[in-house]
Amino acid sequence: MPIIAAQGLTMRFPGVTALDDLTVAVEPGVTGLVGANGAGKSTLIKILLGLLPPTSGAAQVLGLDIARDGARIRERVGFMPEYEALPPDVSATEFVVHMARMSGLPPTAARERAADTLRHVGLYEERYRPIGGYSTGMRQRVKLAQALVHDPQLVFLDEPTNGLDPAGRDDMLGLIRRIGAEFGISVLVTSHLLGELERVCDHVVIIDGGRLLRSQAVEAYTAASGSLVVEVEEGRDRLGQRLHDQGVAVRPEGRLLVVDIADEETYDRIRDGVADLGLRLVRLEQRRHHIEEVFAVGSEQPHPVPQGAPR
Ligand SMILES: Nc1ncnc2c1ncn2[C@@H]1O[C@H](COP(=O)(O)OP(=O)(O)OP(=O)(O)O)[C@@H](O)[C@H]1O
């Protein structure tokens, strides 16, 4: 059964249609909701939380109706908002305990759950320092912790990698993967960066101008390509030259060789080359497409959200 289902959701604000007849179903797991700035992602989340009544259409979250059961949805769904309104003068512990109490946990359980959750998001050491002195990455973790503290079945994470540097982004994506894989909590995570979602999501839903562009398993986007990636410890150029001399289409890429697969013999030629030259093979695998390449070339749809698109 889908954890989220929407039928013909439309949201009109004066002068702008934020959602336009959106029908989509999301299964359990980690799902990316991708769309450029203004595509309607945050509006959809607010509607699904029962905080904003849509102009028309219907939706159910965990089988609960958004029009009738908003409070029950919010009991069972965690929410990490895009913008922050964290109090600077209190510590992460105080804030997350407070949020746990607001969700109805008794005092002792709230303290225990807050400590556990802060440890899971990697904020344990700094948990007694005032939030005002935290970095952007630490503040994002506080927002994530408060979304998880009441042990929800599902969390909505609105642009959780916003404002993070590449290392902070990697850490946050790793955390999101763990929320799904280790804690069994389903995740709906929004991003305007299509590329980062293929690393953590099972499924992506792409919206543009409030309309559904695609809803598809990530695996379907990242199907195997016709190239092999070869990594050897040393002797990359000698192997490349040998393959080239044998008529194999090969090109260097960083420490790797990328070899076009002509037929089954391509594998044999690589294996023989590595053996004859006495090289150590580190990796030989079929290259997978990246979601972004699929959208940039050979797709019936235009590339909806370029990596690093200005916000
Ligand atoms: N309360 C509101 N009143 C008027 N217009 C709104 C309101 N909320 C959202 N909009 C408009 O609806 C459209 C969709 O906004 P939304 O915030 O859902 O987009 P988004 O995909 O989440 O983008 P972002 O990542 O910038 O938040 C935008 O044109 C926005 O300006």
From TrEMBL:
Domain ABC transporter stretches: 4-234
Protein's UniProt name: ABC-2 type transport system ATP-binding protein
Lineage: Bacteria, Bacillati, Actinomycetota, Actinomycetes, Streptosporangiales
Pfam families per UniProt: ABC_tran
InterPro entries per record: AAA+_ATPase, ABC_transporter-like_ATP-bd, P-loop_NTPase
Listed transmembrane segments: none
Keywords assigned by UniProt, alphabetized: ATP-binding, Nucleotide-binding, Transport
MF terms (GO), sorted A to Z: ATP binding; ATP hydrolysis activity
UniProt superkingdom: Bacteria
Similarity field: Belongs to the ABC transporter superfamily.
